[in-house]
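Need tokens for this chain, all 174 residues.
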Amino acid sequence: KAIEYYERSAKLNNTIALNRLGYIYANGRIVKQNYSKAIKYYERSAKLNNTDALNHLGNHYVNGEGVERNYSKAIKYYKQSARLNNSIAFYNLGNLYENGEGVKQDFLRAIKYYEQSAKLNNTIALNRLGYIYEIGEGVKQNYSKAIEYYERSAKLNDSDALNRLGTLYENGGG
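Here are the structure tokens for all 174 residues:
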């Protein structure tokens, strides 16, 4: 029944319904998993500037799910989504640059993308930045900065940030 209503809404170019159908088919929720149908729905939603659909397409191109792995296309979709202020897309771009996946590893560029995501209150990005400064990955180790990022995430009730803060203070880093 849900699919029926989503499909009716999708016929009216409802980007949320199109994205939802993509998600349902990609994850095999209430239907058999079907990446090609998922991609079709995500692409229709993306053409209507749905930031989540753009980000999902990026994920599919990174992981080669339903499409051939293609980092250039993934980055294109992530950047499109990020331009529309999708914090997860900023995070995903940062992750590609931090790990050198499909791009030359570039910690400073990764941090730039993580910071953009953090500005949108993405706790995963805040925690990643905290960790980068805590261990000094690609930057000079800086416990004060690490604590600053963890505290921002903790203020958003993120339990991982609270745990990292506890660990830092326990080990004398705070």
